[in-house]
Automatic annotation (TrEMBL):
Ranges that cross the membrane: 529-547
One of the GO biological process terms: CTP metabolic process
Entry binding sites for ATP: 182-186
Skewed-composition ranges (Basic and acidic residues): 681-694
MF GO annotations: ATP binding; GDP phosphatase activity; ribonucleoside triphosphate phosphatase activity; UDP phosphatase activity
Annotated protein name in UniProt: Apyrase
Active site (record annotation): 145 (proton acceptor)
Keyword ATP-binding carried by entry: yes
Source organism per UniProt: Oleoguttula mirabilis
GO cellular component labels: Golgi apparatus; membrane
């Protein structure tokens, strides 16, 4: 476990579900970064293109079989996310499934059943953090989706962290956000001060939190237009053609390239197809883009009564947009329709209406068969197929109408803003060449990525959650959003970003920047130290045993010499013998009898064989002078001698009591001399009378593999 926190968001759309994984520094690490210089910013959210994955079809297809949504849909996404998030961080990682347009269309009981099964699957099959299913697994309205997108765009553009670098005038530093999918379109922007005050009740209160705990508050207008997505608009357009040409089998369509024939759902019809002579009318392209613009304009429904002025589309209230300070970025279809075929406005260039419309007009007037040839030669890249170029003329006309006649974005080079007498083409070129330096200060720009990060509403959701995990400064309120009620700090419908700040035990760690010795002493590593030490000990012992007996003896001798217990043991000091385990490991022949003695004359140290009649007399053969045996207390059979061998026996007094001059120590143990020692094994049988022989177990001729043989004295 380390200094990073993770989060996973599943965008459950109508055509499929896509999981995004994000990462950021925990509060302590973020505040320590660069000496706290970045504490006055929002958490730095990171993601990568390989950290997202999409599966098909959409989650809404499980309305009649909700019990399968986990195994047949979510499993692949969850396993993918689990591969990205470190194993020891999974249980600290929140997961969100937020469904959009597709799930909104399901009946209430089916929608509830799918969401319940999603929650159950997450809790039973994953360890991801899921404290509140109602918050983490839900169908979000279009307004919430738009608000998350607004957060994502401004976060990436820097409108939150560096407002002074994005001064649009009148104290305004944020950007508007436009999104268009297949079924709906959204708009989100912060009105200027005058409009914000006038329409305060129509705004959303949004609260974020910096790394240093300070709060950021914004009041944002968000609305969604159902049926204004590209696919739904196309469906309504076909209906208008059917009404315009009643009874006709072949409907001329100015929004299709010349000669292209399609059915009412947009599928191409080959020449000679039976469908061409069927009962259902079909469409044939005429390639008249100017006419296409005229026919798509009514789809804006500008004539629908506006009950709450002002309105933009379909009679829905929208505060007036001040384009002097409100500059918009568009994603999804706004990007694809202006870039996939017409790569005029790549990420460093501003949208230019004049150039864009000219390119579209030239393209759509071409013959369909010529376009197919270009697709085959990948003129517009591998991702552009026949379906894409078939639809692009209608989508381009719809986008132009929504942007300029619907929302009111100025037509660069054609509408007010161009100086009289100046060539509009020169202004267009200046905008295109300098858009990047202008900091997105043009009225509109389509984007897909900003600073190599995809502009997705899921990022906005994670920015909210990550900022909620920063400890609040004094008087800082919760992170989230709700109704903008004057004088109310936390409205009743306030939706929390994901829970209060709850520091984890790992938040204080900074493992990636610690030296190895600091990491060993840190809390997470300290729990592993006993196991590591045991493993190392076992490894060392195994290697030691594999060295062989001779090498072990050599190694032992070197170690003892280093610690002062080597061959130069001072006179009069007993050498401590190893226990049973130590003897086996270090090569001793016997755990109880072996003694390692330095080189010397065996005649000076070995005990001669003793006869039964004088084996306790202190003389080896009755002639030689008594010789004191040099054996350890364990090897001396003091407790097994004949009854007359006692403390009171004068002839034995010096042996047991260690009388002066005897060299004993009272236990039959004689101090070692520096003259040298050899290996010697002794037992009770060794001191027994010769005529009784040796026992089988004590006989040196039946040696144990753990005993070292001793040499007999040769006289």
């Amino acid at each position: 476990m380390g200094k990073h926190r993770y989060g996973a968001v599943i965008d459950a759309g109508s055509s499929g579900s896509r999981v995004y994984v994000y990462r950021w520094l925990n509060a302590q690490a973020a505040r320590a970064q660069d000496g706290g210089a970045k504490s006055a910013s929002l958490p730095n959210i990171k993601t990568k293109s390989k950290w997202r994955k999409k599966v098909h079809p959409g989650i809404s297809t499980f309305g009649e079989k909700p019990e399968l949504v986990g195994s047949d849909h979510l499993k692949e996404l969850v396993e993918f996310a689990r591969e990205i998030v470190p194993k020891d961080e999974v249980e600290n990682t929140p997961i969100f499934l937020l469904a959009t347009a597709g799930m909104r269309l399901l009946p209430e009981h089916q929608r509830a059943a799918v969401l319940a099964n999603v929650c159950t699957y997450f809790r039973q099959n994953t360890k991801f953090q899921l404290p509140d299913c109602d918050l983490h697994v839900q169908v979000i309205p279009g307004e919430t989706e738009g608000l998350y997108g607004w957060v994502a765009a401004n976060y990436l553009l820097g409108g939150f962290d560096a407002p002074e670098k994005h001064d649009h005038g009148k104290g305004h530093s944020t950007y508007g956000f436009l999104d268009m999918g297949g079924a709906s379109a959204q708009i989100a922007f912060a009105p200027n001060a005058t409009e914000a005050e006038k329409h305060a009740n129509d705004l959303k209160l949004l609260r974020l939190r910096k790394v240093n705990g300070e709060a950021l508050e914004y009041r944002v207008f968000v609305t969604t237009w159902l049926g204004f997505g590209a696919n739904e608009a196309r469906r309504r357009y076909v209906e208008s053609l059917l009404e315009a040409y009643p009874g006709s089998q072949e409907l001329p369509d100015p929004c299709l390239p010349v000669g292209l024939r399609v059915d009412q759902t947009g599928h191409e019809l080959a020449l000679g197809s039976a469908d061409l002579n069927g009962k259902q009318p079909h469409l044939i392209g005429t390639g008249l883009f100017t006419e296409c613009l005229k026919r798509t304009f009514p789809l804006l429904e500008k004539d629908v009564p506006c009950d709450d002025q002002p309105c933009l589309l379909h009679g829905q209230h929208t505060p007036a947009i001040d384009f002097d300070v409100n500059h918009f970025v568009g994603v999804s279809e706004y990007w694809h329709t202006t870039h996939e075929v017409f790569a005029m406005a790549h990420k460093d260039k501003a949208y230019d209406f004049h150039t864009y419309q000219k390119q579209v007009t030239d393209f759509c007037s071409r013959d369909w068969q010529d376009i197919v040839v270009d697709v085959g030669q990948q003129k517009w890249g591998k991702k552009v197929d026949e379906k894409t170029v078939e639809e692009v003329c209608f989508k381009a006309s719809w986008l132009i109408n929504v942007l300029h006649d619907g929302i009111g974005v100025p037509r660069v080079g054609l509408e007010p803003g161009a100086e009289p007498g100046k060539d509009s083409g020169n202004k267009t070129k200046a905008i295109v060449d300098k858009a990047k330096d202008r900091g997105f200060l043009d009225p509109f720009q389509a984007v897909d990525q900003i600073e190599d990060t995809e502009v997705s509403w899921t990022l906005g959701k994670m920015v909210l959650y990550a900022s909620s995990q920063m400890p609040a400064a004094d008087d800082a309120l919760a992170v989230g959003f709700g109704s903008n009620v004057p004088g109310v700090k936390l409205p009743s419908d306030f939706q929390y970003a994901g829970g209060k700040y709850d520091p984890l035990p790992t938040d204080m760690e900074d493992n990636e920047h610690q030296d190895w010795h600091d990491r060993i002493l840190s809390s997470s590593y300290s729990r592993r130290v006993p196991g590591i030490l045991i493993f190392m000990l076992i490894l060392v012992l195994a290697l030691y045993l594999l060295c062989g007996r001779e090498r072990r003896l050599t190694l032992r001798s070197k170690v003892l010499s280093l610690i002062g217990g080597g061959p130069s043991t001072p006179r009069g000091r007993r050498r401590k013998q190893p226990g049973i385990l130590g003897g086996k490991l270090f090569g001793n022949a016997s755990p109880t009898y072996e003694r390692v003695l330095e080189a010397g004359d065996p005649e000076d140290f070995e005990l001669n064989d003793v006869a039964s009649e004088d084996r306790h007399s202190g003389s080896s053969n009755g002639v030689d002078p008594p010789r004191t045996g040099r054996s350890s207390g364990w090897a001396t059979p003091a407790r097994t001698m004949s009854p007359d061998f006692s403390r009171s026996s004068p002839k034995n007094k010096g042996y047991l009591d260690g009388t002066p001059g005897s060299g004993g120590n009272g236990l039959g143990i004689t101090p070692f001399e520096r003259g040298g020692l050899i290996v010697r094994n002794e037992s009770k049988e060794r001191l027994a009378p010769r005529e009784f022989g040796r026992s089988r177990t004590g006989s040196p001729n039946r040696r144990s593999p753990l005993m070292t043989p001793f040499k007999e004295s040769v006289d």
